[in-house]
Amino acid sequence: xxxxxxxxxxxxxxxxxxxxxxxxxxxxxxxxxxxxxxxxxxxxxxxxxxxxxxxxxxxxxxxxxxxxxxxxxxxxxxxxxxxxxxxxxxxxxxxxxxxxxxxxxxxxxxxxxxxxxxxxxxxxxxxxxxxxxxxxxxxxxxxxxxxxxxxxxxxxxxxxxxxxxxxxxxxxxxxxxxxxxxxxxxxxxxxxxxxxxxxxxxxxxxxxxxxxxxxxxxxxxxxxxxxxxxxxxxxxxxxxxxxxxxxxxxxxxxxxxxxxxxxxxxxxxxxxxxxxxxxxxxxxxxxxxxxxxxxxxxxxxxxxxxxxxxxxxxxxxxxxxxxxxxxxxxxxxxxxxxxxxxxxxxxxxxxxxxxxxxxxx
Length: 361
Known about the structure:
It is built from twelve helices and eight strands.
């Protein structure tokens, strides 16, 4: 069990996101040993980068020796450590940018050797070229596809373990960096009408013959749990939608702008650094008038210990206009990442059922 860290910011990050870090690919031993080296929040990025570098060096040695599988797993471990190094750390741009670029590079080294491989794509959308990874179940013929929409400071590289569960059910996956996320951040910040980016992804997927974009679903964790239902409300090509830890009205986070740590996170993804402008943007981020337009099957999962109020997710469920399922997991934290063995099978089975996936036998 993690003891409470003496630095309040480190303690907050660990208590909020340690389960997420582990379920997305951070080894528990790395969490313990790296955490022991972190004395104050300013140590966070540097020490996680040191852990990442050790994995990257191992990967390079394994690669030189021809041990491709070992190299791929080590590159993935490095990518996740670099990812969580800069995660929530935008106040030091030099460290942030270096870690972010290393995350992209290490994941790219690992991706072709996943089972099944992750293929890099770039989706055109206005001034953006949204980087993405497509994975297709082996021995499948035109499987349905699930588009994974990331949360506030999440990126496409973070979704491998979630993808694995969907792939086992016969679902292809497409994880992308939307506006303000991951690689796309370097081209521009988050936009209110994020559904336009999702629609650009669907346009792109319709041109890939190996998958069936006519059977397409979306999944969103955290802020993705707002962006996914918003996208489903605005694009009828989405045939099923599932989310966890979602919020109906983003103006409910306005109180966080008074906290310097939260202000840094939120202003970073928008690339807007004036509080008044951020307030206006968040007031425009609502599902009011949109939730009733969600006609596809909808799965809403929430935890009783999520810092997003239960009534926010429940309001999306209540107002949605199509078939729907509501699951409240007792003891679940944000996105129920402390209960991945409960919420992830529910998501996978729901999407597989409504998209008519056929697992390979």
